[in-house]
Each structure stands twice: as C-alpha cells, then as structure tokens.
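Issue 218. Parser rejects a valid record. Input:
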Amino acid sequence: MREEPLSNCEKEFILSALAENLRTDGRKCDEFRVLKVIVGAEFGTSLVMAGNTKVLAKISCCIVEPKSARGNMGAVEVHVDMSPMGSPTHEDGRLGARGIELTRVLEMLCRDCGAVDLEALCLTAYKKVWQIRIDVHVLQADGALIDCASVAAITALAHFRRPDVTVLTDTILVHSSDKKAPIPLTIYHMPICVSFGIAPDGEQVVIDPTEREEMCLQGTLVVAANKRHEICALHQTGNLLLNEQLIMRCVDSAIQRAVDVTELISVVLTDDNNKRVKGDGPIGFAGLISLDMLTSHQCEPNELIAPAVDSNAISVEPQPEKVTVTEKGIVHIGEGSGPLLAESGPQEEELMEQVEAIAAVNTEQPPIERPKDNTNSAQELLESIEEELALLLPEGSMRPLQRTSNGQNAQPDNAPVQLSAAVRKTKKKAP
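Output the parser choked on:
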C-alpha cells in the first residue's frame, strides 16, 4: 500500500514545534519514549515496546556444516519479517528498503560486533557447528524501529538456551531439556542502538523520533553503544553532513541510554530466572493482558518498564475515621469535615415525625396468625359420621361417598346409599 503522505501544513507544524523544543506526543526533543521489555515463557523469546513501536524476537538453533572460511566458528543469521500487520506500507513477502536496512544493522550488531561467542558454538571443527537463527517480527512500526529491534534481538539472545550435546566419534547426541539442562549462550556485551533525528537545519537533534517526525527530518543517525562506554557501530540514513560536536553529543547520550537499557534487560532476565528456579513458572506474554481503562493520550518519557517483574507494592493501612453525632442527629465524619446531613427545616422535621409515628405503629401491632389447615380434622369428622350411619341403617342400603377434587362429598340424586367395605366390617364387629 502507498505510504500516507505528509501535508505541508502538518510538516510545518511539526518543524515549528521542534524548533520550540515541543513535540506532538508531549515530549521534549531530548526525551525518549516509554520502553517495555518482556520475555516469554519459552527460552529465546522477547517482546519490546517503545511507544507504539512493537517488535517480537525469536531465537532458534540447529546443527549445520560450517563454512569453509570459518570452520571452527558457529553461524548467526538474522531474518526480518516486515508484514503488513506492522504498517500498511509493508508488503507481504518483501522486505523493502527499510527491511533490508534493518537486517544489515542487526547482522552488524549480533555477528560482526562480537556480541556472541561464535567459537563456543563449534561442536566438531570443520564438520558440525551450531547455527543461531534470529527471527525478528515487526508487529507495529511507529519510528525508531532499529532501536526497538536491537533491544528485542539482544534480549532474546541473552534469554536463549541451546540443548546440551554429547560429541561421540561418529555421531552427536542432542539431549532434551528433561535429561540435561539447556546451556545459555556466551554474551560478551549488549550493543544498544539509539536513533537521533537531524532537523533540516543540521543543528537540532531529535531523540527517538516517531514515524511522522522522521518524514519531516533530514535524516537519522544511529549510534550503537554498550554499558562499557564502547561505540559498537554508527549508521546513518539520508544525506547528512554532521560536525564533530553534534556527533559527540549524540554519542554521550547513546552511552547513557545503553547503560540504562542494559540494566533493565538484566533485571528482566534475573527475575525470569528466579521464577523458574522457585517453580513459580514464568508469566510470559500473559502479563500484557490488563483491564486498565484507556484514558486520554498521555506520554511518560524516559521511563523503562519491566511489566513481568514483581514490584514491592506499598501497603497503606486504613485509618479509622472519627465519627461524631450531635444532639440534633447530625453526623460528622473525620476532623474538620462538614455535616453529612444538613440541618433540616420545619417541613423536614414534621415529615420525620410522621415517619417515626408510622414505624412505631407497625412495630406495636402483633403479627397476624395464619389460620391452621383444618383438612385433617374435617376428614376425621366425615369418617365418624359415616360409621354412625352404618350402625343405624341396614346393610346394603348405603354406598360409599364420592369426594370431588376440592375435597367435598358428592352424591348423585335418587341414588341408593351403600356402605363401603371398611364400614361393613365395622358394623359386623358392633354388638
């Protein structure tokens, strides 16, 4: 799909706001967006969110034959998925210019910068080595895509565990995680990328630009640094002419950012490891499910968040409120608070007296007793009358009484009266 164009009015508005150290999302030019890092329940999965930019990284491994040039070293491959789900401008099955650029930068960080020990991935020299595959999926692209993808890839590499193996003479046995614990990769350092947008004047720097801001800027300078104050890589997009002072300013800011992000990644990995050791089970991406109400558009810049890490909640004990009742029935809650019920006038007092009188009458009246069910007594009376008639009348002159559905005796007109079998037995026993 064609990229949504940026109107001249919107471009002028964004540039004028940047000139006054203001941005459309509420940040200043030297502030970052909120960064969230989450690791999954499976080893080697991570999700990183920087504002509206979301990137998912997945690490996998397999045993392959090494290349002829480096037979004693493993291999690291990077695959980027720029699906249309991330942005309408992405095409399915095609990387495009942005996808190719992202792939090259990630390969430079994870393979060429020496972040991973490749010699430790060798099983048999010039025969079998481990091949590490990094799959990066762009879920949503809203500026600073290289920054978010680099953090996701490095976090996934540090979180990954490869299976343990036993090298025999002719074969290699790969053990499952049930038999032998997986082995983590050897990570020497964590290079973190930081993007700096350069304004058209070539002097103003915009840190962590959004997608709309990148369309207004002249280009972007990407600085990769680690917590040891080392510059791992430099990359730029667009035709930029930068002076030494501006580059040094960007480098100092990138080093400080790398220290903060590396500490955040370490906290996330340590918390995940502790949960696995205790047997609590990792939360994974289920921690992203929340019932928070979406309010107005807000921005909290320069904030690093680890959603899955347990935080020490502050518990505040509830203090009992002081309740005071005056002579007129007015209730005061707390100190210095106004009355809960305002003083009533003559009409309200008369109404309250009527309500109290009605309530008093209802309480004085005794409860109404329900009449008892006399069905059993009526049945006994009918049986006694029938027995007396049986004793007075001759045998065969009475017929049994028929009872209707409502319990009353019914007898057809001009019908001879007969006694039932029970009555005849009673008559025979009579003297």
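Fixed in the parser; the record now loads. Residues 8-288+298-305 form a domain with the Ribosomal Protein S5; domain 2 fold (CATH 3.30.230.70).
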